[in-house]
Structure formats: structure tokens, C-alpha cells
Amino acid sequence: MNLIQQLIIPAFQRFREASFRVRATAAICLLLIIVSFSAMALRSPSIEMVPLHENHEFTNTEITQVTQHFVAAGLNHWELKSKQIFIPKQQRIEYLTALDGKFEPHTLNSDVDSVLNNGSILDTQSLREMRLRNAREKDLARIIMQIPGVEEAQINIDDHQQRGLSGKTEMTALAAIKASQNNEVTLEMSEAIREVTAARFAGLDRNHVVVVDLNTGHTFGATNSNYSTSSLDMALRNYERWWRGRISNLLIDIPNVRIEVGLYPVAKPESDTASQAVKASVSVGIPDSYIQQVANNRRATSIQQQQATANEVKQNVIELVQGVIPVVPHTTIEEFDVHVARILDLTADQTNNS
User: Fold this and answer.
1) Does 349 have pLDDT greater than 60?
2) Looking at residue 235, what is its pLDDT?
3) What is the strand order of the sheet 84-88 is part of?
4) What share of the chain is helix, strand, coil (3-state, %, to 5)?
5) Quick one: 263 and 304 in the same domain?
6) Residues 24, 29, 30, 32: is their CA dihedral positive or negative?
7) Do 147 and 66 belong to one domain?
């Protein structure tokens, strides 16, 4: 502290003894330094902005409605340029979620509308069809991006004429999908995208639609068959997680319940390839403490009453689980086994010793 005072006091004395011009120059330099540091401190990092809805000019009423929903959700980094609303690319999901089910622009012009309105009489038929297809691809990509969990989507449609006398034209499609937050594209999501893509283009078979996950490189529907061996295994693992989650939600009132599920392909004769046979099994372990709690609530004191309570609890669980049958596309559940047992409660010490 004394050192600082020793430096400041002589500096003030010299400043007072200096001429007016020197003092004015020093004050201006000090002011410029303060302003520069303030600007650097307040300067925000560059944020990439993307349009909320491409090719759509918002009316004043729509702008008011949209911005009100943004403010209510605590989103304040949007910009308005030429009647278009721009939002941060990194927060696109949050902004769309804030508008989900609350705002739908009634005059949203699609790329197809733009092609039809801006076409020229000098355009050839092939050029017009190519532009319309490209516009439909963009419109479909925009629709797919509204699916929960999809951050980016790009659709490419191609057709070629088969050899032979029939000369039939076959269409194929590629959907490049990037899931939000670097997640994987699930089987359910890929199946929905294939169905939507096939429904959008007349003559396009869903089996000719390939979905590629840009985050992982996995492909869905890349073979002539509905599922190859690897894709079938991946599908079964995905549906196992879905199935276990559904059962856990049903049995949420049973604390420390143990659930094990399994989906296994069953070998079939080579001549029968219409669908893959699958065996489904689920095992549920009900803690003894829960059964005792139910028995105490019912004041079941005798051994016979407690045994009847345990059997009733197990039967109720079996009926609940049997109502949640996994449905895997292009497969048939030939065997469905449900096992429910009463298990002992393991304390922390018992678990560590084991």
C-alpha cells in the first residue's frame, strides 16, 4: 500500500505542475484507454445466425407473436433483418421448442411455391421438373427437421430406367440426417423418415430409401432386404431399451424392482424369408420388502395370507408386462416369455461383500 502511495503522489504532483496542453493530452489518452478496455469487455463472441424459416417474410403481427414466445422462454439473442427472423444456430432447437404448438405461419411459402411463381416460359420441361424436384427435396427436409431430435436434414432423390422391355423407372432416395446434440439416429427415427420420404414422392418405395446418420456413419435400409444381420441386431438392441423403459414406467411404484429383457432372432427355414422370427423374454424381480409392505397394508398376518398377497402381486405384474409387447418392424414375435419372481432385498453391505 505504501509503495502505491509513493508512486501515485509524485505522479499527481507532476500532473499538476505540467502545462495545460500536457494535462489535456494525458486525460485524452487515459479516456481512450478506458473506452478501449470497455469495448473489449463488452464485445460478445461471434455467433452464427440462421433464419428461423427460410423463404418466409414475417408480418408485423407474426413478428410480435414469435418474439413474445421467445421472451417468455428467456431467449433474447434473435435478430430481425428484412422481415426475416434470425436465431443462433447453436440454439436452434431451443428456439423451435419455444414455438412448438404455439405458432404456425399461415403464409409460409415453400420452395415449390417459389419455383411455380418464379418460373419462366423459356424453361424446358426437364429443367422445370428438375427445379420442382429440388424444391420438393428442400420442403421435405424442412418437414423432417421438425421431427424431435433432428437438427439437420438433406434429401436427395434420383431415378433411373431399368433395362429390359418394361423400361420401368425406379426411384431411390438418400436422407442425410444429423441428430441434435451429437446423438445417434435411432431405429424409430430412421423408420419414420423412410416412411415420410416414400409418402412424399409418388412411385418411391420405402425399401429404396436409405437413411445415413451423419454423426456416426450408420446407415438404415442400405441393403435390398429390410434388415441385414447387423442391422437386425442393432434394431433388437434399440427396441430392448425402448421395451425396458416402458416396463419401468409401468412398475415405477415398485422400488428397487429388477427388470431384464431380451429379444433374440429365431432361425427359420431358408424358404421362409417373409419376416424374421423373434423370441421375446422378460424377467422381473420384485423385492421382498415391497410384498411385505403390501401385506402390512392389507393386514395380512398369517403365512397363508402373505403367500396369497405375494401371488396376487406377481400376477398383477405379469398382466401389466404382457400388455407391453415389443413391435419390431419386419419381425414376428413367435415366443413371448414372462418370468416374475420374489427376490431378497440386498443391503449396501451385502452388495459390497458379493
Assistant:
1) no
2) 74
3) 49-51, 84-88, 79-81
4) 50, 20, 30
5) yes
6) positive
7) no
Q: What is the pLDDT of residue 227?
A: 45
Rounded to 5 degrees, φ, ψ at 179 are -75, 155
Reported for 309-312, long-range contacts at CB under 8 A and 24+ positions apart, including other chains, are: 310/342
Residues 167 and 256 in one domain: no
Residue 119 within a domain: no
Dihedral angle, C-alpha 113, 117, 118, 122, nearest 10 °: 120
pLDDT at 346 over 60: no
- Cα(228)–Cα(222) distance, rounded to whole angstroms? 9
Residues 83 and 21 in one domain: no
* One domain, residues 237 and 282: yes
pLDDT digits (tens, 9 = 90+) for 279-328: 888 999 999 899 889 989 888 888 888 889 899 999 999 988 888 877 77
Query: 340 is written with which cell numbers?
Result: 416374475
Q: What does the pLDDT read at residue 119?
A: 57
Q: Where do we find the cell 419376416?
A: 275
**pLDDT band, residue 238 (cuts 50/70/90):** confident
Query: Quick one: CA dihedral 182, 179, 148, 47, positive or negative?
Result: positive
User: For residue 191, how far is the Cα from the chain centroid?
Assistant: 14
**pLDDT over 70 at 271, yes or no:** no
Per-residue cell: 204? 418411391
- Greater confidence (266 vs 79) lies with 79
pLDDT (average), residues 1-23: 68
Q: Are residues 235 and 288 in the same domain?
A: yes
Q: How confident is the model at residue 185 (pLDDT cuts 50, 70, 90)?
A: confident
Closest CA to 186 of 206, 225, 210, 213: 213
- Residue 109 resides in a domain: no
Can you tell me the distance from the alpha carbon of 26 to that of 145, in angstroms, rounded to the nearest whole number?
58
List the beta bridge partners of residue 339.
Answer: 283
215 and 250 co-located in one domain: no
Last residue of a domain, one of 222, 249, 269: 222
